[in-house]
Amino acid sequence: MDLDFAEKLKKGNVNNDGNRVERPFITISSENTQKLLIDLSNQVTDYLKDNNLKGSELFSRAVRYLDEDDYKKEELYEENNITKINGIFINNDTKMISRSATTDPLLHDILHFLYLVKPIYFKDQHEYRLGLTLDDPIDVNELFIPIHDLRKYVKVHPFQDINNLQLEDI
User: Fold this and answer.
1) Cα(99)–Cα(88) distance, integer angstroms
2) Cβ-count burial of 18 within 10 angstroms (0-12 exposed, 13-18 middle, 19+ buried)?
3) pTM score
4) 3-state SS string for 97-162
5) Are residues 16 and 101 in contact, defined by beta-carbon separation less than 8 angstroms?
6) Which tens digits make up the pLDDT trace of 92-135?
């Protein structure tokens, strides 16, 4: 285990003003990660089916971390992609982009970068992202998926335990 693990967790525990916050944190063992994802995916699939919504299944990906120069290059590339699709909106509604064989690959690349790529200085977070795409637009309030208790897969640690965390505690 990384000897600076506790310090890195503390450093990342900040509020919107950048002030340190002593709040609980969770860990998920590698043994439970896949079980948690399967259970969560099944719950989302059931919700979509019960509510007659169509789209992708829940998907998960690890965040990719790029060194500063590579990140800036990819960021500029995706900004150019955004410029290429700018103006392809339905009735000038920026939430509704006209999908086509031209825009879909660009949108895929843009969204991939926005959600799954971060600068290297965030690497200590070891982030994982979950996603879901729907075929039809919905109001954000329509997508409230009640998730059943998943505590059997995670451990909640009080902030005070951060300095005493051992690998076997995860």
Assistant:
1) 9
2) exposed
3) 0.63
4) ECCCCCHHHHHHHHHHHHHHEEEHHHHHHCCEEEECCECCCCCHHHCCCCCCCCCCCEEEECHHHH
5) no
6) 555 556 566 666 788 888 888 988 999 998 887 778 888 888 88
